[in-house]
Amino acid sequence: MWEYTDKLKDHFFNPHNVGEIEEPDGMGEVGSLACGDALKLTFKLGENGKIQEAKFKTFGCASAIATSSVLTDMIKGLSLEEAAKVTNKDIADHLGGLPEQKMHCSVMGREALEAAIENYQGGGKKKHEIEGEVVCTCFGVTDREIERVIRENDLTTVEEVTNYCKAGGGCGGCQGAIEKMIETIQGDKVKETPVSVPRRAGKLTNIQKMQLVQQTINEQVRPALRAHGGNIELIDIDGNKVIVAFRGMCAQCQLAELTMKDVVEAKLREFVSEELFVEEDADSTEQPHNHIE
After folding, report:
1. 59-63, 87-91, 106-110: which range is least confident on average?
2. More confident residue, 257 or 287
3. d(C-alpha 186, C-alpha 150), whole Å
4. 63 with 39: CB under 8 angstroms?
């Protein structure tokens, strides 16, 4: 399981500045429900031109809530020039650190702040547009975004890039392109980097496996399916076989088999164990089972 700092837990259970400012001076929206994370940040300037009030609304995990909460605290009292210098690392540091797999939440916070500042500078009309060509089609991440997280956070592996911006975390088809970008940007530093120990080193107990599978489905899979009128239910775990049932629109979708392999199975292998494989419950119906919730 991921280790969360006490400060992160406090911001998750008692988030600050939740909501939306009426008639804000700046508003930024980033992410999407289809990708599992979305954030809306609004701010109001005081008479001195500094940020007097900041609020957020987010759809995401505990880290997304905590990073949004601490970010709104951080930028209060700052000028826009000062706020624009806040990095995703600054956000993570203010929480005492984030699990590597959750660093993308701090990046999303930084992007929302930039979008809100752009919105203000554009007179409320400018829409935040991410430049570059899309590399990761699963999550809509561009080459500019990937290049930026590599440079700002000194990343040297595809796994690290996935942790910071989700690129490469879906079907995996873009991982080769990401590797080339890392080699181009980091050069010999990549060769000097020792092979990292897999984050799931060691054998998981059945309880640990069950908890991680359920958490991954809740945080990485279900939000995307719900955004399209579908859902997923964890039916059982038999060794390395994970049995699921699709609900709603997903149960009727002709692409359910593709979703099961390229989304569900890929996420479980990324966050739990590379040995897992997913099968659909042959007896599933539209009525939910009383199994693992």
Report:
1. 59-63
2. 257
3. 8
4. no
CA distance 144 to 147: 5
Alpha-carbon span 182 to 180, nearest angstrom: 5
The burial of 249, by beta-carbon neighbours within 10 Å (0-12 exposed, 13-18 middle, 19 or more buried), is given as middle
3.60.15.10, 3.30.300.130, 3.40.50.200, 2.60.120.330: CATH of 206-280: 3.30.300.130
Report which DSSP code applies to 49.
Answer: S
At the top level of CATH, the class of 6-121 is alpha beta
- Total residue count of the chain as it appears in this document: 293
User: In whole angstroms, what is the distance from residue 192 CA to residue 269 CA?
Assistant: 27
Phi-psi region of 79 (alpha: psi -120 to 50; beta: other; left: phi over 0): beta
CB 117 within 8 A of CB 27: no
The CATH number corresponding to 134-192 among 1.10.1740.10, 1.10.10.1100, 3.30.1380.10, 1.20.1000.10 equals: 1.10.10.1100
Strand pairing of 241-248 and 277-280? parallel
Per domain, the residue ranges of the chain are 6-121, 134-192, 206-280
HSE of 185, CA atoms in CB hemisphere, 13 A: 22
Give first-to-last CA distance, the chain, whole Å.
18
Q: Residue 153's pLDDT band (boundaries 50, 70, 90)?
A: very high
> Which residues are catalytically annotated?
35, 105
Residue 151: predicted pLDDT: 93
How far apart are alpha carbons 11 and 6 in whole angstroms? 9
pLDDT digits (tens, 9 = 90+) for 204-259: 666 677 878 888 888 888 887 777 777 888 888 888 888 888 887 767 676 667 77
